[in-house]
Amino acid sequence: MTDLLVIAASNGENLSLAGRFAAAARQQGEDAEVLDLTALDLPLFTPRAQAMGMPAGLAALQGHLVAASRWVICAPEYNGSIPPVLTSAIAWLSVQGDDFRALFNNRPVVIATHSGGGGHTVLVALRLQLAHLGAQVVGRQLVSNGTNPAKDSSISELVQRLLSLPAPPT
To answer: What are 9-43's pLDDT values in tens digits?
Structure first.
């Protein structure tokens, strides 16, 4: 089981931020992996796409998420909300099995953003969605942008908070 999976919902600044979270976890002696959602071949979730069958990459994505006891999600703000690649991935994951919350229930999660805009609204939207799905979202979050870059000390402190939470039951 991976200690920490850092999920990047863009292949730009948030992927770089994800790498910094993974490095901070490794510096604290934890196993950490970065997952770039933009590199997966998942189609946009729609009922029509679902009727055509589950995408090939979905099982691998779900496997990565299940194997990690804790997650960090680094996502940019798209028009004041969650980026489509993340929304679609969550939608696909939510139609797996009988309990759409099973993957998220009691999962400790940190949320972070590097955004060209304010970045706060994506974190509010993401916090609401993850709480609805049953995740334990860490109270503190990280907002960074070009004029206010993320500090290594803030990233390290968030990793410490995340690691202090109990892992979900297996």
So the answer is: 999 999 999 999 999 999 999 999 999 999 998 99
Q: Distance from CA of residue 114 to its chain's centroid?
A: 13
Q: Which residue has the tokens 């901070």?
A: 24
Specify the pLDDT at position 16: 98
106 occurs within a structural domain: yes
- Of 121, 141, 129, 134, residue with least CA distance to 74: 141
CATH number of the domain bearing residue 70 = 3.40.50.360
Assigned domain for 170 exists: no
- Residue 127 pLDDT exceeds 80: yes
Q: Which residues of 77-112 are buried (b: 16+ CB within 10 A; e: fewer)?
A: bbeebbbebbbbbbbbbbeeeeeeebbbeebbbbbb
- 68 assigned to some structural domain: yes
- State which residues form the domain around 41: 2-164
Q: How many domains does the chain have?
A: 1
* CA–CA dist 35, 6 (Å, integer): 6
Q: Is residue 169 included in any domain, yes or no? A: no
Q: How far apart are CA 127 and CA 53, in angstroms?
A: 29
pLDDT digits (tens, 9 = 90+) for 62-107: 999 999 999 999 999 999 999 999 999 999 999 887 787 889 999 9
CA distance linking residue 147 with residue 139, whole number of Å: 24
